[in-house]
Every structure is written in structure tokens, then in C-alpha cells.
Amino acid sequence: MAAKRKTSAKASSKKKLKNLSQVHGKEEKFQPTSLDQVWGDDGTSTYGTLNDMEYGKQIDDMNLSDMQAHASKVGIIPIDNRSTLRDRLVREFRKHVANYRKPIHHQTPPQDVDSETLKILSEGR
What we know:
Layout: E1 30-31, H1 35-38, H2 44-47, H3 52-61, H4 64-74, H5 82-100, E2 102-103, H6 115-122
Helix pairs in contact: 3-5, 4-5
């Protein structure tokens, strides 16, 4: 019978997925959607942040009475159910962020298409 070998746990040098970040390489420009944005409002005055994770942490640190006060400040009817109130606050926060981060759409000029391609495309009509 062969002798069993002991395996030692090696410290992995691989990076954990939580520590990695991904970059998409696009330039993020957002189109202003209100006069407040044109005058320089960045949208953080209502919620204190535009980061979803940071706002979720803020809500988790609040007790029910603080959440109800925050909800009435934001314009949501405060309710007694903590989980439902949290969901409503997060949903309204995401709507607010979506209003402040409307991306600029770049129009691509129409391209010249040859007659053979037009003939192929017209077959489906």
C-alpha cells in the first residue's frame, strides 16, 4: 500500500472577484434633463449620493423612524412595514438616478448602400 501524501493549503495568489473592477472604455457624458442640471445641480442633494450600493448601505443603517422621516422628505408615504418601505425608497432612488443620468445618443449618419444590398433587403417586403 502506498503512503498517503499530505497536501498543504497554498495561499492562492489569484485576485478575488470582489476586488476586481471592469472598465468599459466608453466616455460617459450625460445629457441634462432639467434646468437645475443646466445650472450645476448634480443630483446628490436629495439622496446624498448617486451610488446604488452606498444608498443601500445608508438605508440599512437607518431604523424605522429614520426611514419614515427620510421617506416623507423624499416624497413617499411612510408605511410601517420596513422591507416594503426600503423597496419603495430604493425604487424611487433608482428613478431619480435614471433621470439624472440620461446618456447622450449620438446619431450615426446614414451610410450609402449598394443596389444589390437594397435588392436583398426589399425581398422581405
